[in-house]
Here is the input.
Amino acid sequence: MKIAVDAMGGDNAPQEIIKGVEQARDLYPDIEFLLFGDEKKVNEQIKNNDRIQVIATTEEIEMGEEPVRAIRKKKDSSIVRAANAVKEHDADAFFSAGNTGAVLAAGLFIVGRIKGIDRPGLTSILPVPNPALKQNNFVYLDTGANAESKERNLVQYAYLGKFYAQKVLGVSEPRIGLLNNGEEEDKGDRLHKDVWQSLNATEDLNFVGNIEAGGMLSGQADVIVTDGWTGNAALKATEGTARTMLSLIKHGIMDGGLRAKLGYLLLKPVFGKIAKVMGTSTYGGAVLLGLKSPVVKTHGASKADAVKNTISQIKTMIDSKVIEQTVEYFDTELTTENVDKQPEND
Amino acid sequence: MKIAVDAMGGDNAPQEIIKGVEQARDLYPDIEFLLFGDEKKVNEQIKNNDRIQVIATTEEIEMGEEPVRAIRKKKDSSIVRAANAVKEHDADAFFSAGNTGAVLAAGLFIVGRIKGIDRPGLTSILPVPNPALKQNNFVYLDTGANAESKERNLVQYAYLGKFYAQKVLGVSEPRIGLLNNGEEEDKGDRLHKDVWQSLNATEDLNFVGNIEAGGMLSGQADVIVTDGWTGNAALKATEGTARTMLSLIKHGIMDGGLRAKLGYLLLKPVFGKIAKVMGTSTYGGAVLLGLKSPVVKTHGASKADAVKNTISQIKTMIDSKVIEQTVEYFDTELTTENVDKQPEND
Here is the structure.
């Protein structure tokens, strides 16, 4: 398999991107990489060219640029060129740590949607940090690709999440939950009440009902479906609070004298485990699900380790044929819908 | 001043409610209490009847009951009777740890809205847990009184929050922020873009722009305004993550052997401080702002300490005349609006 990498995206590019790519290359003998970026800067960082091909680009999309305009104007940017390689079937997946909006736009307008999917959903794999449970993580979408959503978008997210949980995370019958402001059936605004009814009425979804934002990490579902607006707010609040708690502990230790510092040394393995469990890079990057090929974005601050983890995730997506299954499902669905609709056309 | 207390609401009622009331009574010589509840159960718990009058009620609204129906049917419940005492000016404020929906409904339909306020907002005082800043907390509304909001609701929340921050928290020029999915002016859905423009155009609001859910606790504003839907999701995610982190630490320590336990003993003061800073009861209860009198709800799990803190908060609301100021502002506003509208009617 071949992965098209935007070597210029992210705060630590190209250095950490290339370091991560080389680590992944050494781990997975079946992956080849196309590295898009400034030829000189990229070549300087590569230690070993084995299964790595550098493709020179002359433009860069900066973090603050307006995404859609940027991908239209900068045709020779690493993001646009990498996405085009996927479109032209020169690569099987697209990876970037750059401008999120531009990656989403390149995914949507260059790689393209699966037939039957109205809007792709940006998908994160989040932790279930309870050692008493067997479940380690869950699929969460949409985290903010779309600020305004319709009922059918959330129902499609349920399927996208289901197939991802089955194929990539290996959950045989994924439990699907709906993020809502209460657990009961009649909770939420019009949209969420309608989505509840749709998900509940759907035979091939194992719908387990509403899940409140306070219980997101508690392992009540394998997939939590949300509109991008709420999903974004709840995810950012979760990440922000985790950061705040870690920083409170750090401040408390620094201000707590020798006693606290000694305590910290003794608890260091515990804190290390927590930081790993709650860390953003442990479970890979954010996948724009609903596209014809894997388009995966890692955090702008990603280091080599996060890059390597994300490439593992992309490899599993390709190996497991999760996208093929999604394409097939929505294709059959569309055909069935057409058959169902025949009488209306008569 | 007189406070009407629902003695029967909450998981630890009436015991902890009455304990907290007695602690507050001993602290504040100018407060009298009306305790509404089961006469026998309440009297059993009271140690000293000084400035405490028990008013016998025969019904109770349970935690799971449908709120509006409950307050219509159970006229002799402690919630309805306490709210009525405020309406009839027999008491200056209403306090409960009971069914949140029923307290909101009693506030809205019995105590009543301030003229000019379309919808009251449920308001929490949340921590700014950064020891490097002087700011300890901020005002956050609406946390979920309304699942669907209009532009004017959020603008009214900005004023309600501003007056609360000024009068009750003593912030002279409260900075007002808007919870949104990005910091730039053009972020968000239609509603949030419109609210941004309104808040920014308003001379008497010190609007500091959008704040992302991930930065809520970082002290960027003294008041964060949000629609109840998003506000609820972000608040619950914040509380849930704080709980998860504390539980992870606890599990880590329990599974970490003697070394971890020793580390815990040394860091106990640090953890104690964190639990206090992040605790839900440290800053009092949730206030339904926009009503004619203080209506304040504490967490159902509240113990005496939380009850006492919430009564301090109610006392400050009454002493500071925050509601009188709000009434006056919206009264002038309505008069001015009428003057402005005159030409249209000609």
About this structure: The mean pLDDT of chain B is 93. Residues 118-284 of chain B form a domain with the Isopropylmalate Dehydrogenase fold (CATH 3.40.718.10). The longest strand of chain B covers residues 121-127. Chain B touches chain A through 59 residues (CB under 8 Å).
